[in-house]
Structures are given as C-alpha cells and as structure tokens.
Amino acid sequence: MLNRVIVTLLLLSICNISWAGSPDCSAPGETLVSWPDANNPVWEMCYLRPSDSSAAQGSSLEIREAYYNGHLVLERAHIPLLFANYATLTCYRDWKNTDSAFLQADQALMPTRPAITTCDASTHEVQPVGVCPFQNVSGGDGTVGDSADCVTGVQVEKYADRLLLSTNHSAAWYKYSARYTFFADGRIKPRFGFGNSDGTNSGITHWHHAYWRLNFDINGSDNDQVFIFDGTNETLMTSEFSDLK
After folding, report:
1. Which residue spans traverse the membrane (predicted)?
2. Up-side HSE of residue 225: CA atoms within 13 Å toward CB?
3. pTM, 2 dp
4. Residues 187, 170, 168, 64: is their CA dihedral positive or negative?
C-alpha cells in the first residue's frame, strides 16, 4: 500500500497538471502553509495545533487537505489513539490536545537551528528533561536552549527539499512530539516520539503506542481503492476489513 501511494505521488509530480486545486483552511483552528511558497506551491495544506485538533481527546498535530502539485493527496492525517502500556499491566489512554512548549527553530525559511522537542532532548533512557528549556541530559550542564525560544503550537520549517511541521504536547508527566515531513518528490514521513518530564514511572518498563490515521484521497474519494499485498499478489478490498501486517 505504501509503495502504491509513493508511486502515485511520483507520477503526479511529472504529469502535466490540467487543474490546480488548493486547500480552503477556513475551519476553526486551521492554518494554511505552502511550500516552497504560495506563488508556486509543491505542497499546500492546512494544519492544526494539538489543542485545536479533532476527536474527543485530541489527535496531536493534525493535517487536512494536503495538496501535491495541485492534486489532493490527503484528506486528513492525525493520531486519534495513543496508549502508554506498562509491564505492570496498567494501560493509559493518553490525551493529545494539551499544547506543551518546545524550542522553536531560529527561522522558518532554511533554519540553521531546527526546532527541538521533548523527544529530541530526551537522549537518556530514564533521566527526565523537565519542561522547556529542557535539561541537558547528554553529559553537559545547564539547559538545551533558552527560555526566550520556548513556544507552543506548530513550528514550520522550510528547507530546499522538504517541508517540516513539528509540535509538542503533554499528558500528565509525559511529553509527546509529532512531526510530518513532506518531500519535494512526493514522499510523506510522519514521526512520533516521547519524553518524561519529571521521572514518574521511568523505572517501570513500558511502551508507547501511537496510531496514525492517514486518509488518502488522491484527487478525491470517488476512485479510491485499497489493496492488500501479501508479498506476491494484490487483492482489491471492496468492504471494511481488518488485517495483520
């Protein structure tokens, strides 16, 4: 499925575009971003910070109406489910709509110092990094960054070959970070990470499970098709199904 989507996007990049659509971004909380710029965009989309994201408990950094070279690719991308599962058999469903501060990039266009989230600062397995500006747990003293650079919301970073969106949010003592990278060749790379702010339960073996929901609508939903590839054959699925990877 992933290979099929990537190939489709690459084909879009070399086809002659007969029409150019663009996102609306007029719903509450939506912000428009265009890359590399609004005059000749390769990627355009709406994004929402965690506190404005959909779902009862939020859904982290949310992307809506993502267009690639004027073609609708994603109707929505977000993380509606997030769990912290402990070896003691305790499992928490964490919320994803509380913004948490992180270090902003030095600039949006071609930054020389990228945004630093809790996940980036958490380089030690159990040592907490606190809140922004984060404690240096990499063997140095002091903090990572300066309090003047601590922000909440979504950081936009525009590089020569990609658009990067980052955010930070919290659930009790856990700090979570979410990123989406949109490349010039059509690839989309989501990433999710975590860090512990105060050390609570850091000595207990546990796992964090984030579940992305990616609603691909290539040029709209009319001709959407989903295939299961078993390594040899592809099977077209015509109704709702569940499957193991």
Report:
1. none
2. 9
3. 0.85
4. positive
